[in-house]
Write a structure and sequence with these properties.
Blueprint (H helix, E strand, L loop, with lengths): L4 H13 L2 H8 L3 H15 L4 E4 L2 E4 L1 H29 L4 E6 L1 H4 L3 H11 L4 E6 L2 H9 L5 E5 L7 E15 L22 E2 L4 H12 L9 E2 L2 H10 L4 E4 H5 L6 E5 L5 E9 L6 H18 L18
Helix pairs in contact: 1-2, 1-3, 1-4, 2-3
């Protein structure tokens, strides 16, 4: 069997886009070129990947089974090409990081930017995926560092769990800002933004509110803590979110206070088991551990850039 990279790219684009026309646009190819590549791939495999009837185009069960492996394979090819380019150009290394939305929006962009002030020659790739996909990538050694929700769904990983306290986020000027600590009884009648998918944080908030005899309302839900903060900024309600997203100083018109009894969000920092990290990835990993440890202790992490400043000079 001879499977070409173009075959994998076309198949992956078709699975992601859902149609030949959209896949062609994504790959900057003509529709006939996409159809020909798909037919060639199916011929090599010996089985069809899509049902084709008039007005109907959908993946077969075999295509669904092959899709996850295809993405992993393309990532591996990309890493090989990038490593070859680094060796050819004399660049000293790269870091591949994968995260879900929990810390990808309000932490990693700043951490990466400050890292590059000290290590401008290092190439950094940040991928946003689901926790399960990230765990699979790390297990398959397709990424150096992963950040996912605990518990970790895949074996064969080195894992550090951080229990991050949650805080109450509200608009500046809200009466909650007069309080030093927010307690369940203070949430009475307030609309609290939920996290989609029956999140453990929401379950704990609901349980504490019930124990306090307090009725809370939920009118809006979203997938990420960072989006919940943006919804607070827009006036959609208040939110109980992790300290990373809740306490970041973004000058966005929101404020926060600690919440008690303490509610924690568990974040897992994962790396491929038994695989020594290169120097660049190890430096970034160490800084990330320091930052998350400070957040877990509800301490002020300080200037992100200082995490990479080994000589005390900015």
């Amino acid at each position: 069997m001879r499977v070409k990279r173009r075959h994998l790219e076309v198949f992956h684009a078709l699975m992601e886009a859902g149609s030949v026309s959209r896949a062609a646009e994504r790959l900057n190819l003509t529709q006939p070129a996409v159809s020909l590549a798909l037919s060639a791939f199916e011929k090599e495999l010996g089985f069809p990947l899509f049902h084709r009837t008039k007005g109907y185009f959908a993946p077969t069960g075999e295509a669904q089974a092959l899709h996850a492996e295809t993405e992993v394979g393309l990532l591996a090819l990309t890493r090989i090409e990038r490593r070859a380019a680094e060796i050819s150009s004399g660049r000293v290394g790269s870091i591949s990081i994968a995260s879900n939305g929990a810390v990808a929006i309000n932490l990693l962009p700043w951490l990466i930017a400050d890292f590059q002030k000290y290590y401008p020659e290092i190439y950094v790739d940040l991928k946003i995926r689901s926790s399960r996909q990230i765990a699979m990538f790390a297990s398959g050694r397709q990424v150096d560092i992963g950040l996912i929700d605990a518990p970790v769904p895949v074996a064969g990983l080195d894992t550090t769990i951080f229990k991050l306290p949650c805080v109450c986020v509200f608009q500046e000027g809200d009466p909650l800002g007069k309080e030093a600590v927010i307690r369940p009884e203070m949430l009475a009648g307030r609309s609290i933004i939920a996290i989609t998918g029956d999140h453990t944080v929401d379950k704990e908030v609901d349980s504490l509110a019930a124990e306090a005899g307090v009725r809370i309302e939920r009118r809006v839900s979203c997938s990420y803590f960072a989006i919940a903060r943006n919804l607070v900024r827009a006036g959609a309600g208040i939110a109980l979110i992790d300290a990373i997203n809740g306490t970041r100083k973004l000058d966005d018109g929101t404020d926060w206070r600690p919440f008690e009894p303490r509610i924690h969000f568990e974040l897992a920092l994962i790396t491929p088991s038994g695989q020594p990290m290169e120097a660049a990835a190890s430096t970034f990993y160490t800084a990330l551990v320091k930052y998350l440890s400070a957040c877990a202790e509800f301490a002020e992490p300080g200037d992100l850039g200082e995490l990479f400043n080994t000589d005390g000079e900015r």
